[in-house]
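lol forgot to send this yesterday, sorry. struct tokens for the thing we talked abt
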């Protein structure tokens, strides 16, 4: 093929690494060039589906009469904020010396969409090839370019991505406009967002309706261990106090006899390697990181440091060809706290039966370390923790099973039966990887099942040291945390078994790459709040779930979509038939909203008026503090009232809240401590932090000043794009 090849990456950082490997050292505005290749980049999406306004004047104002919006052919538009880079890419695509295009965007459905939309909007019809790699190391890039695949092999993947995007546009934008206009409130609905919120609301209703019950257990203590009454039904809880007291009276003063002793050798396989969702769960449990924070760390470890493989994966296994590189990957992590166990694995025989399974690998394999040597000192504390989780899991999954002997006893005191158990470790196996760092998801085990038991034989008589009744209460189901919500999104509860199986074989609600953004959107829309680690729905969120059409609240909609999208990606279904069905479905949803007799109440309305449109402002708990927001979607005014900072109270050491604006800013603590901002700054300086450090600290917080949120968001996005360029 004469001429050069144009490589289209998804981000500047990835493009720079590819350029380095390909020897493209000459820099241009928005691209890099070498003897054989020109490398350019997107900034995520450069092209998107047009807003409703592009399809007619009637859609420029929000009203029920213009719904549903059902364009026969969707239009693509260049995103205004990144239009400069699009023009760069477009001009390169049209260069006469460019003979072919190599798509090097993220290897997945969404990455394919990013590239194809750019090529379509730019009018490019040149031959296509596809780079499909799972890590950003020089070796992976070289091997990927040595085995480029034909672009047309991914046509169906693109068609499924396009169908998903257009269907989400039809359903999401129509339902959002219908809800907003019908109830005169900023409400939104969507295929993934709404059922996710419905999970949180349903759990809250369970908690509110829960009636705790008091229960009783009878525990006997012997020399060196204890046992719990279980009775003939092997049930230790009693809901009748009189029954517990009768058991206690029956065993008082009696001797105990060991009636059975059973010992069983058991082994526990190591946990599977990480996919993104499992990693986000563990990072939330261990470090309270949000899904978005964990993904950001992973992206940095993948793109910048090149220490970990592709993060946006839903697979927990690797293929045999990747298995051949395991010794090199082990040598790359054999430093610091991992040196000893990595060395032991290299000297012995690797156990790959829990890691290698080609049948369970989808677009990308599990998250594992690359062959790149690591400099732990060069990682931020957050990156270091996420890296630690991945490396320890990698070392664990290559280790032998954890082996132990489980002992179970039954003891008779008079006619009453008590039970006890214990474990004796025979071989720590994979748990060695967590010796000095407990497993992130170590379940709580019953004290009677894990205690160290003395040597006991059947028929032994034991002295009862004491016997007592212990009281407890049944607990309501736990509120969701980000960790448990991610689990529920991955495997949402559904009654239809066939649809449930589809969800297991796809990605569940959302994808590993999008779940973090979905959760963040629920916070940003004030549908839920974070109370510590717990996720609690707001009144707005609870009302929204009651207002949206019933089937939009169910994960079964996504399962049906994914079934069709999977067939499209395999060339077994047509996109036009799927989208026509979506248009009919959208019209039905809109008519259901319009016909509803429900009422929405702003129960957080204040008496303070919006300075821009004079509507009464709403008081909400934002992600980082308390805010006043305008209920009018078109206005978008927001003002911060207080910010939850990372500064600590000098008295009780709890986090301080920053209230007010300008010179009147005030730090306040729940213990009663109050401190002017100027005094806080002086205290920081006296403690060794200069004014620059104070400013840097405050820059990390949400701005306290009021102002138009839409303008602030646009400015922030412009600054982010500028940094990317």
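and heres what i got for the seq, position by position
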């Amino acid at each position: 093929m004469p001429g050069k090849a144009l490589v289209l990456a998804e981000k500047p950082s990835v493009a720079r690494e590819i350029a380095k490997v390909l020897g493209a050292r000459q820099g241009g505005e928005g691209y890099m060039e070498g003897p054989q290749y020109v490398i350019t980049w997107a900034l995520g999406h450069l092209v998107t589906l047009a807003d409703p306004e592009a399809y007619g004047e009637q859609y420029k104002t929000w009203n029920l009469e213009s719904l549903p919006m059902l364009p026969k052919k969707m239009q693509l538009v260049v995103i205004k904020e990144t239009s400069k880079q699009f023009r760069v890419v477009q001009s390169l695509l049209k260069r006469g010396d460019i003979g072919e295009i190599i798509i090097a965007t993220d290897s997945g459905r969404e990455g394919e969409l990013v590239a194809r939309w750019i090529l379509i909007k730019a009018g490019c019809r040149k031959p296509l090839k596809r780079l499909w790699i799972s890590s950003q190391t020089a070796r992976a890039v070289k091997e990927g370019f040595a085995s480029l695949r034909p672009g047309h092999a991914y046509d169906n993947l693109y068609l499924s991505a396009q169908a998903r995007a257009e269907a989400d546009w039809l359903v999401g934008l129509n339902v959002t406009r219908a809800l907003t206009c019908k109830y005169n409130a900023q409400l939104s609905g969507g295929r993934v967002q709404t059922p996710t919120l419905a999970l949180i609301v349903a759990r809250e209703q369970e908690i509110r309706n829960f009636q705790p019950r008091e229960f009783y257990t009878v525990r006997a203590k012997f020399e060196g261990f204890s046992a719990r009454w279980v009775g003939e039904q092997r049930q230790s809880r009693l809901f009748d106090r009189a029954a517990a007291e009768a058991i206690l009276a029956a065993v008082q003063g009696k001797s105990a006899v060991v009636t059975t002793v059973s010992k069983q050798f058991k082994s526990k396989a190591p946990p599977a390697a990480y996919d993104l969702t499992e990693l986000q769960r563990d990072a939330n449990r261990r470090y309270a990181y949000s899904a978005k924070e964990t993904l950001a760390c992973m992206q940095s470890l993948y793109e910048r440091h090149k220490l970990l493989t592709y993060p946006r994966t839903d697979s927990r296994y690797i293929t045999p060809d990747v298995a051949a590189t395991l010794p090199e990957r082990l040598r790359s992590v054999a430093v610091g706290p991992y040196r000893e166990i990595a060395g032991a694995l290299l000297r012995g025989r690797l156990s790959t039966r829990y890691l290698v399974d080609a049948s369970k690998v989808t677009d990308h394999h599990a998250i594992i370390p690359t062959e790149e040597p690591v400099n732990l000192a060069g990682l931020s504390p957050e990156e270091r923790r996420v890296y630690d989780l991945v490396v320890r899991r990698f070392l664990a999954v290559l280790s032998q099973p954890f082996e132990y002997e489980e002992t179970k006893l039954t003891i008779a005191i008079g006619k009453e039966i008590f039970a006890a158990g214990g474990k004796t470790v025979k071989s720590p196996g994979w748990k060695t990887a967590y010796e000095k760092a407990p497993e992130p998801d170590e379940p709580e085990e019953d004290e009677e099942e894990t205690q160290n038991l003395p040597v006991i034989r059947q028929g032994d008589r034991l002295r009862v040291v004491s016997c007592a009744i212990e009281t407890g209460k049944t607990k309501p189901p736990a509120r969701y945390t980000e960790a448990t919500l991610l689990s529920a999104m991955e495997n949402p509860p559904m009654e239809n078994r066939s649809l449930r199986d589809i969800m297991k074989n796809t990605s569940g609600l959302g994808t590993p790459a999008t779940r973090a953004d979905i959760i963040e959107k629920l916070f940003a829309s004030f549908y839920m709040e974070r109370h510590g680690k717990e996720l609690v729905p707001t009144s707005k969120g609870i009302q929204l779930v009651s207002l949206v059409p019933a089937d939009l609240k169910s994960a079964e909609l996504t399962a049906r979509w994914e079934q069709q999208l999977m067939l499209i990606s395999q060339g077994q279904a047509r996109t036009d038939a799927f989208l026509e069905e979506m248009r009919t479905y959208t019209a039905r949803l809109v008519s259901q909203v319009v016909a509803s007799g429900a009422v929405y109440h702003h129960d957080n309305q204040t008496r303070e008026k919006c300075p821009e449109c004079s509507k009464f402002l709403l008081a909400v708990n934002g992600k980082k503090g308390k805010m006043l927001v305008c209920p009018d979607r078109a206005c978008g005014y927001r003002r911060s009232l207080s910010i939850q900072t990372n500064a600590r109270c000098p008295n009780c050491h709890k986090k301080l809240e920053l209230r007010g604006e300008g010179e009147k800013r005030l730090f306040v603590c729940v213990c009663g401590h109050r401190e002017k901002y100027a005094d806080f700054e002086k205290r920081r300086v006296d403690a060794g932090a200069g004014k620059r450090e104070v400013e840097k600290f405050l820059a990390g917080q949400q701005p306290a000043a009021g102002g138009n949120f839409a303008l602030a968001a646009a400015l922030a996005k412009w600054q982010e794009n500028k940094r990317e360029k």
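The chain has five domains: 4-147, 165-208+479-595, 214-269+402-437+445-473, 276-397, 605-724. anyway ping me if u want another try
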